[in-house]
C-alpha cells in the first residue's frame, strides 16, 4: 500500500511513500520519512493509494501514530488554504501544527498526543474534616506559590457540582492552568500528600452548568440575538454591527452557551493576544473555567496540547475556545459556533511566512465547511464584509444603542493650526485637551491619550547638517527608545546605542524629532505630576503577564492616565474612562494606502468607544490640522454607514477591493538592480500570460528591509473571473523565473488579498 504524505517543504505537491507499518494507513497520522540525502522529516498522511505509482517510492521510516491525530476537516482546510493562497500545503502544515506535534527522528517527542485522558487533581482529605484545610495552609508557611495553587484548587472546586460522597471533586489540570497555576506547584503539593493526581476522561458531570451565570439581555440585544439565530437557521453568515459599548460580548456568550448545550464547541477569535486577559474573566463567569480555554502563541505547549487532546476526543465536553487566528487550525469537527470579534482588524492577516492568510476569510470557509454558525462582529466592519452584507451574502444585524444607561461619546475637533497660532499648546497637547484631562482627574475619572507610534522619538536628526540617523540594513530611520537608551529599527529589529557625534559633520547637535508613546508619557507626567500614568504598547506589554496586570490596575482604578497605541483601541473595557485625546490624527489620514481612510475611521471610532461606557458620557478630543476632513467628521457624527457607502463608491470607481480581487507579488533580492530587472521581466511575462492587468513594478515606501531590496507588482482581477485558473497560470509564470540565468537567486512572494 502507498500513501501521499504532506512534508514541511515549499513544494506544491505531496510525496508518495510505501506504507510498511504493521497497522493499516489512515489519513491524518504522523510519519517519519526519508527526504533527500540523509534527511528525515516528519509528515502527515494526506491520502491512501491502492494502486502502485508510476515511479519507485521509498518506504516510510516510522509511523508515529496508530490512529489519526489530524482530523479530516483539518486536512480539507489545509488543501483549501494552499489552493486559495497559492502556497505549498507543507507551508500550511508548518503554520497549523503546534510545536509539540513536530517530533524529531528517534524520539517520542516531549509532548506526544496521549489516548485522550487528562490530568485531574483532588484534595486528599474529606469535606467533613474542616479543620484539616486550615492546618495544611499553616504547614505550607512560606511556600507562597503552593499556597496560591491550593487556593485556586478550592476556588475551582466551589464552581463544580458537589459529589455524592464525602470527597472534593476532581478538577482538570487545564482549569487550574487557566487560573495561573503552574504544574510544578501541583506536583510539589502531590509530593507532600496534599493533592492527588489521576489521568481521567473528563465527563460532563465534572463541569459546571453552562448557563449558570448568563446575564440578562436588553431588548435590543435580545432582538439582535434572535436575528442571528434566524439567519443561522437559514445557513447564512451574520455580520453584527454593534456600536462600541452596545454589549456584543453578551450576545457572543449566549450563542456560545446555546452551542455548548447542544454538545458543540465554540471558537471565539480575537485580534490581539492582549485582549484575552480581560475577555477571559468575563467569559469565565458565564461558562465556568472548566469549559473555557485560551489558545495562542503565548500559551505553553503543555496547555495547548491539553486543549488539542480534549478537542480530538469525540465525547469530550463542549468548550469555548478563546483564541488568536491560530485557533482556526484546531481540530474542530464538532464546531457549532464560530465568532470573529473585531472582524475589521488587520491583525487577522498573516504576513510572513506563508501561508499569508486572512483569518476572517478562513473563518468564513471553515464555518461553511463544518456547517457551523458564523458571526462577524464589529462596531466598524471592514468594507469587504459590509459589501457582502449589502449584497445579501451575509445577514446584516445592527445594534445601534449602548447597553444600560451609557450614551455614545461626544467628539470635538481641536485645530492644531488655531491653537499653535494662539500659542495655546502644552507640548503636543492643546490647552482644551489639558483642561479636559485635568477636570477628569479632579472627578476621580480616568483619561486616555492615544498616539499610534511607540518609542520616544521616530527621528534622531543633526541640526547642524540635517543628517537623520538611518538603519544600516533598511531604508528607514531608526527610532529612539529612551527607556532602553537605544536606537531601534522597527522593521528588522536592529538595536544600537546612539553615537555622541553626528557621523556626517562630527558635531553634537542631535535633536529628537517626532512623537512616540514614551515621549508622550514623559510630557503627561510633567503636566500631571500627581497622576498615576500607564503606557500600553508592544514594548511595555512584552512580558507574558504584563497585559493581565495592566487590566487589573485599570479595573481597580489604580491608573489615572493611560498612554497607548492602537492596542488600547481593540476591545478594552475601562469602566472609569471619561476623556480620550487623539494626537496627530492627520498621520493616519495621509498614509499612501487605498485603505487609509477606512482604517483611520475604524481606529478613531474604536478609541473613542473606550470612553463613557457606564453612566457618564465620554468626551473625545481629536487634535488635527484638518478638522473639516470628511473622515473626522464621520467619526464625530458616529455615522459608519454614510462613511462606508462613500468609500465603497470611491473603491468601485477606481477598481479596488471589494469590487476586484488583488494579488501582490513582492520581488526580493540583495542587489537593487537585480530586483528591478527581475520585476520588469516578470511584469512583461505576466502581461503576456494574463493578457494585461499588471500594475508596476514599483518600489514600496520602504524599499530595503534586512538588506534585501523590494519591488512590487499588483494584479487586479475581476471578482467573477476564474480565479483558480488565473492563480495557476500566475504560479507557473513565477516558477519559470527561477530558470532564467540572471534571476535564479530572486525570491518572489505572492500575497493573495493583501492587507
Structural overview:
Strand 12 (292-295), helix 10 (301-312) and strand 13 form a beta-alpha-beta unit. A seven-stranded parallel beta sheet has the order 12-13-11-14-15-10-16, sandwiched between helices. A six-stranded mixed beta sheet has the order 5-2-1-4-3-6. It is α/β, with parallel strands linked by helices and 755 residues long. The protein is built from 22 helices and 34 strands. Residues 109-116 and 208-212 have low confidence and may be disordered.
Question: What coarse outline follows from CA principal-axis ratios?
Answer: globular
* Low-confidence runs: 109-116, 208-212
Strand arrangement in the largest pleated sheet: 12-13-11-14-15-10-16
Number of strands: 34
Give the class from helix and strand content and strand pairing: alpha/beta
Strand content: 15-25%
End-to-end separation in angstroms reads: 44 Å
Question: Could you give the topology of this structure?
Answer:
Elements: E1 2-6, E2 15-18, E3 30-34, E4 40-49, E5 58-59, E6 62-63, H1 72-84, H2 89-96, E7 118-123, H3 130-140, H4 144-159, E8 171-172, H5 173-178, H6 183-191, E9 195-200, H7 219-233, E10 238-242, H8 248-261, E11 265-269, H9 276-287, E12 292-295, H10 301-312, E13 320-323, E14 335-341, H11 359-370, E15 373-378, H12 383-390, E16 395-399, E17 410-415, H13 416-421, E18 425-426, E19 429-430, H14 431-442, E20 446-450, E21 459-462, E22 479-481, E23 486-488, E24 495-496, E25 510-513, H15 517-527, E26 533-536, H16 546-555, E27 561-564, E28 577-582, H17 586-589, H18 596-608, E29 619-624, H19 630-637, H20 640-654, E30 660-669, H21 672-690, E31 694-698, E32 704-705, E33 708-718, H22 723-736, E34 747-752
Parallel strand pairs: 2-5, 10-15, 10-16, 11-13, 11-14, 12-13, 14-15, 17-29, 20-27, 20-28, 26-27, 28-29
Antiparallel strand pairs: 1-2, 1-4, 3-4, 3-6, 7-8, 7-9, 18-19, 21-25, 22-23, 23-24, 30-33, 30-34, 31-33, 32-33
Helix pairs in contact: 1-2, 4-6, 7-8, 18-19, 21-22
Amino acid at each position: 500500500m502507498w500513501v501521499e504524505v504532506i512534508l514541511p517543504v515549499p513544494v506544491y505537491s505531496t510525496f508518495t511513500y510505501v506504507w510498511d507499518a504493521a497497522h493499516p494507513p489512515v489519513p491524518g497520522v504522523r510519519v517519519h520519512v526519508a527526504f533527500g540525502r540523509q534527511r528525515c522529516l516528519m509528515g502527515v498522511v494526506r491520502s491512501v493509494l491502492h494502486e502502485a505509482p508510476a515511479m519507485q517510492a521509498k518506504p516510510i521510516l516510522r509511523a508515529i501514530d496508530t490512529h489519526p491525530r489530524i482530523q479530516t476537516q483539518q486536512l480539507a482546510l489545509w488543501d483549501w488554504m494552499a489552493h486559495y493562497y497559492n502556497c505549498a500545503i507543507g507551508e500550511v502544515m508548518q503554520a497549523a501544527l503546534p510545536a509539540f506535534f513536530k517530533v524529531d527522528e528517534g524520539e517520542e517527542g516531549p509532548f506526544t498526543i496521549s489516548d485522550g485522558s487528562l490530568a485531574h487533581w483532588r484534595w486528599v482529605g474529606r469535606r467533613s474534616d474542616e479543620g484539616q484545610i486550615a492546618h495544611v495552609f499553616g504547614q505550607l508557611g512560606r511556600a507562597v506559590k503552593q499556597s496560591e495553587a491550593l487556593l485556586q484548587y478550592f476556588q475551582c472546586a466551589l464552581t463544580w457540582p458537589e459529589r455524592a460522597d464525602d470527597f472534593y471533586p476532581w478538577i482538570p489540570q487545564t482549569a487550574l492552568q487557566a487560573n495561573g497555576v503552574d504544574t510544578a506547584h501541583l506536583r510539589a503539593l502531590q509530593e507532600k500528600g496534599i493533592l492527588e493526581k489521576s489521568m481521567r476522561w473528563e465527563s460532563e458531570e465534572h463541569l459546571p452548568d453552562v448557563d449558570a451565570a448568563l446575564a440578562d439581555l436588553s431588548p435590543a440585544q435580545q432582538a439582535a440575538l434572535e436575528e442571528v439565530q434566524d439567519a443561522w437557521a437559514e445557513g447564512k453568515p451574520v455580520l453584527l454591527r454593534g456600536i462600541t459599548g452596545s454589549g456584543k460580548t453578551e450576545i457572543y456568550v449566549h450563542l456560545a452557551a446555546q452551542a455548548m448545550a447542544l454538545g458543540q464547541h465554540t471558537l471565539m477569535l480575537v485580534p490581539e493576544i492582549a485582549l484575552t486577559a480581560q475577555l477571559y474573566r468575563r467569559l469565565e463567569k458565564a461558562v465556568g473555567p472548566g469549559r473555557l480555554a485560551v489558545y495562542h502563541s503565548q500559551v505553553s505547549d503543555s496547555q495547548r496540547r491539553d486543549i488539542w487532546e480534549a478537542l480530538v476526543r469525540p465525547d469530550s465536553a463542549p468548550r469555548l475556545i478563546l483564541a488568536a487566528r491560530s485557533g482556526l487550525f484546531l481540530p474542530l469537527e464538532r464546531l457549532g459556533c464560530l465568532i470573529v470579534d473585531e472582524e475589521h482588524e488587520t491583525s487577522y492577516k498573516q504576513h510572513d511566512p506563508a501561508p499569508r492568510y486572512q483569518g476572517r476569510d478562513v473563518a468564513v470557509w471553515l464555518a461553511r465547511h463544518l456547517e457551523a454558525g458564523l458571526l462577524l462582529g464589529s462596531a466598524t466592519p471592514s468594507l469587504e464584509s459590509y459589501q457582502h452584507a449589502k449584497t445579501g451574502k451575509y445577514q446584516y444585524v445592527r445594534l445601534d444603542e449602548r447597553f444600560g444607561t451609557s450614551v455614545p461619546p461626544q467628539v470635538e475637533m481641536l485645530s492644531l493650526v488655531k491653537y499653535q497660532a494662539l500659542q495655546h499648546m502644552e507640548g503636543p497637547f492643546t490647552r482644551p485637551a489639558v483642561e479636559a484631562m485635568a477636570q477628569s482627574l479632579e472627578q476621580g475619572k480616568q483619561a486616555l491619550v492615544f498616539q499610534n507610534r511607540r518609542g520616544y522619538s521616530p527621528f534622531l536628526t543633526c541640526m547642524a547638517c540635517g543628517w537623520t540617523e538611518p538603519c544600516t540594513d533598511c531604508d528607514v530611520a531608526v527610532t529612539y527608545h529612551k527607556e532602553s537608551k537605544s536606537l531601534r529599527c522597527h522593521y528588522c529589529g536592529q538595536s544600537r546605542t546612539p553615537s555622541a557625534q553626528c557621523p556626517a559633520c562630527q558635531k553634537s547637535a542631535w535633536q529628537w524629532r517626532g512623537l512616540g508613546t514614551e515621549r508622550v508619557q514623559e510630557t503627561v507626567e510633567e503636566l500631571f505630576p500627581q497622576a498615576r500614568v500607564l503606557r500600553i504598547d508592544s514594548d511595555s506589554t512584552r512580558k507574558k503577564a504584563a497585559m493581565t496586570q495592566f487590566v487589573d490596575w485599570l479595573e481597580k482604578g489604580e491608573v489615572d492616565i493611560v498612554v497607548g497605541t492602537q492596542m488600547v483601541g481593540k476591545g478594552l473595557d475601562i469602566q472609569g474612562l471619561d476623556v480620550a485625546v487623539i494626537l496627530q490624527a492627520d498621520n493616519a489620514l495621509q498614509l499612501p494606502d487605498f485603505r487609509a481612510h477606512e482604517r483611520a475611521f475604524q481606529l478613531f471610532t474604536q478609541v473613542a468607544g473606550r470612553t463613557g461606557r457606564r453612566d457618564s458620557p465620554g468626551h473625545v478630543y481629536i487634535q488635527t490640522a484638518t478638522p473639516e476632513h470628511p473622515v473626522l467628521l464621520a467619526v464625530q457624527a458616529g455615522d459608519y454607514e454614510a462613511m462606508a457607502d462613500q468609500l465603497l463608491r470611491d473603491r468601485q470607481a477606481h477598481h479596488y477591493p471589494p469590487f476586484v480581487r488583488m494579488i501582490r507579488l513582492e520581488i526580493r533580492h540583495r542587489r537593487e538592480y537585480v530586483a528591478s530587472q527581475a520585476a520588469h521581466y516578470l511584469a512583461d511575462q505576466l502581461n503576456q500570460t494574463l493578457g494585461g492587468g499588471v500594475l508596476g513594478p514599483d518600489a514600496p515606501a520602504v524599499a530595503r528591509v534586512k538588506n534585501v531590496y523590494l519591488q512590487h507588482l499588483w494584479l487586479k482581477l475581476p471578482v467573477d473571473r476564474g480565479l483558480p485558473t488565473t492563480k495557476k497560470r500566475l504560479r507557473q509564470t513565477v516558477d519559470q523565473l527561477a530558470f532564467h540565468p540572471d534571476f535564479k537567486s530572486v525570491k518572489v512572494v505572492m500575497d493573495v488579498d493583501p492587507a
